[in-house]
Design goal:
Blueprint lengths: L1 H7 L2 H17 L20 H7 L1 H12 L2 E6 L2 E7 L1 H10 L1 H4 L6 H6 L10 H17 L5 H20 L4 E2 L2 H16 L9 H16 L5 H4 L13 H24 L9 H11 L9 H32 L1 H14 L15 H14 L8 E2 L4 E3 L2 E3 L4 E5 L1 H4 L43 H18 E5 L23 E5 L2
Parallel strand pairs: 2-7
Antiparallel strand pairs: 1-2, 3-9, 4-7, 5-6, 8-9
Helix pairs in contact: 3-4, 9-10, 9-19, 10-15, 11-13, 13-15, 15-17, 15-19
Bound molecules: protoporphyrin IX containing FE.
The site of protoporphyrin IX containing FE has 25 residues, from helix 15 and helix 19.
Amino acid sequence: MLTEWCASINGWTMAIVVILLFLLLYWSQQWPSNIPPGPTGYPVVGCLPLVRRNGLKNTLRKLRIEYGDVFSIKLGQTLIVVINGVDALKEAFIKRAEDFSDRPDTYRSATLIKSKGIVQASGQHWKHTRTFALGALREFGFGKKSLEDRVMEEIRIFLEVMSEQNGKVYDPKNIIQISISNIICNIVFGKRFEHGDTKFWHLIELLEDVFRLNRAGTLAANIPWLRYLPGDFFNIKKIRNNFYESINYMQQQIIDHRNTFDPENPRDFIDVFIKEQSRQDPDNTVFEDFNLQVTLLNLFVAGTETTTTTIRWTILQLIYNQDIQRRLRQEIDHVVGHSRFPTLEDRQNMPYYEAVITEALRFGNIAPLSVPHGARKDFEFRGMAIPKGCTILANLDSVHFDPNIFKDPTKFNPERFIGEDGKLNGKEKFVMAFSLGRRICLGEPLARMELFLFVTSLIQRFELLPEYPDNMPTGIPNIGIPSGPPNYRIKAVKIN
Ligand code: HEM
């Protein structure tokens, strides 16, 4: 019966039905007339074709020139408001933090993550979970000497693994990634993994996929109904499966901790959570297992890829700018010498290191659009309507590559941060790699500690050389979070 009915519908009727459905969808997504200015785009897909052609970062750079510091762009069914430049960013994310600090309600955050954890959460739940996490991380070393010791333990192993490769040509990505990941694992799970552990490697790959597949500007992220199509052309099912596999891994860690839990002797982040859980009202959703699972996932993902990518950007620049590498080593030799490893206390005496890492954070620009924020209610900004349901992007790229702030922004040049007296000249405050306002990166102190201890210990002990000295690898870095350098290989030669 159904097949007969289907057969009776001819191609024209089908086409008309499809067009009507598209128009219905388009009309159901009308926004107020005074939203920030921006390109009109096509029905249904909006400006997605433009973004696919030019890339999101380049498209936004062009639109800023045309429409100013606050503009909007429609990607599929999502309205995106983009905030550009130091003044507008500070006005929105610091002065108007109450309006600008939520996350958007996406399919992934609502259905998979259920708006739990820290990164995708909003409102009171986010506030309480973030406050608890910061307190627990402080208990386990944030800002303490004990954390520096844990990081140095991992660095010693990292340098041993590097020594095994002495003089060979290889890609250092995996070694860095595992070492950095071990630090956050140590804090949250109370354990570290060996460099050859295949199960751990699988977990890291899963989480790398979480970043890779969840990029803003993709069709899957902006046209929600694509997930109902058969097959998995848009990787939506893969994202879901990865998520559940990672969540199961986190739950297993929680079970293992419960089995060996001693309230008098909390070992790590999970133990502090379990201890607090037993004291709280059972209806308090901050202290339920699913919130802990998502928070662990957040800390693990945010704490691994970002710092790893920044170190990879730094090494890439140091191998192709030998003069910068030499000057950095001279500073290390002068302040630290050779008989001991650098310590955090040395940092205040090393302005050139500070300039190099600030330039790596600017140039690497690893989260050019930060992590998307979202409007949970209608409000106005600079006389324009910011409607409930839109996504808001803090365009950090608009500052990091603004030629009015940083001359020749596409050149890697740490000197731009050094004054005539050899000290930092104050320009470093324009580098907003950790974002700004209430959502500012929760791991910034840990990341800065890792960057200092890894980079200085490495340059103190190894001369880093490129595989192809005359041929710096290029390639458009992935726009996503984090946006990484092209792949490259190095030769690290031990300094005696
Ligand atoms: C160089 C390294 C890092 C960079 C450049 C970086 C950058 C960022 C950025 C741009 C955001 C988004 C802020 C916003 O929404 O406006 C963020 C959020 C976050 N970062 Fe980092 N991050 C780094 C390392 C870390 C580390 C090591 C951790 C681990 C503890 C971490 C944990 C987080 C968390 C949990 C959030 C979410 C904060 C919230 O939504 O309230 N990050 N980070």
